[in-house]
């Protein structure tokens, strides 16, 4: 811990000489361990956090309204020539993710010709669900897109894709007559690979003009997640107070998430991209371009 604090001091010294960077912040609990140190422990004073849903942040990043942002991994795949990646940070799972669910009135292998309501908040999960239904279960449902809550969506449609805090709440509660499927677990069963839901991307122009700042920000995020991993009970307690959830449930959730982006997770992401290309959801196979 002492070495971590000394490294953080060096990072903050570098950042103090730079103008504040505009950094996207996903408004879901899955990002709390990544930002906890930045917000609560002063690891990163020289940033301007801008809240938004994953698809919103992706749009803002590509339009130049943000410098760095967590974006759906499929959006990086669609725009990889304009972006670079932070080196070792993602939102991923190795099996269950708990906060990305398909909820359905029917078993998952009986959704052929049914209608599924897709959340508009995450493009990665939309494509992931379509891949799972097509390749694993050989189902061809229809899809509509909406920002409705799951209960309202199920009044009008046969199934719904739910993500984020709403999905996490559903994961821990029984729903009478409703089937639930965790897409992280489904992807693991389909491919044997880890699933990368979001990556931290930087606009090429910003990274090229601000190499030291980009490196310092990359390090700061790494330090923040390292701190959170060492103090996960503290992070869960903080999140429980803010979101009125049980701290043990939150700790279990954070334990299920993965924030790495090492070779194994890169392999899992490239597997997802290849299947997306094969099914026509990406025009070409992207490369992973790091800062």
Which key terms come to mind for this protein?
single chain, 291 residues, alpha/beta, 13 helices
Give a topology summary:
Layout: H1 2-15, E1 21-26, H2 32-40, E2 47-52, H3 54-62, E3 68-72, H4 73-78, E4 83-93, E5 100-104, E6 115-119, H5 123-136, E7 142-146, H6 150-156, E8 159-163, H7 164-171, E9 179-182, H8 183-191, E10 195-203, H9 204-209, H10 211-230, H11 232-243, H12 247-256, E11 257-258, H13 263-278
Parallel strand pairs: 1-2, 6-7, 6-8
Antiparallel strand pairs: 3-10, 4-10, 4-11, 5-8, 5-9
Helix pairs in contact: 1-10, 2-10, 5-8, 11-12
Task: Give your account of this protein's structure.
By secondary structure, the protein is of the alpha/beta class. It folds into two domains: 2-94 and 195-278, Periplasmic binding protein-like II (D-Maltodextrin-Binding Protein, domain 2), CATH 3.40.190; 100-191, Periplasmic binding protein-like II (D-Maltodextrin-Binding Protein, domain 2, 3-Layer(aba) Sandwich), CATH 3.40.190.10. It is built from 13 helices and eleven strands. The chain has helices spanning 2-15, 32-40, 54-62, 73-78, 123-136, 150-156, 164-171, 183-191, 204-209, 211-230, 232-243, 247-256, 263-278; strands at residues 21-26, 47-52, 68-72, 83-93, 100-104, 115-119, 142-146, 159-163, 179-182, 195-203, 257-258. A five-stranded mixed β-sheet has the order 7-6-8-5-9, sandwiched between helices. It is globular, with a radius of gyration of 19 Å.
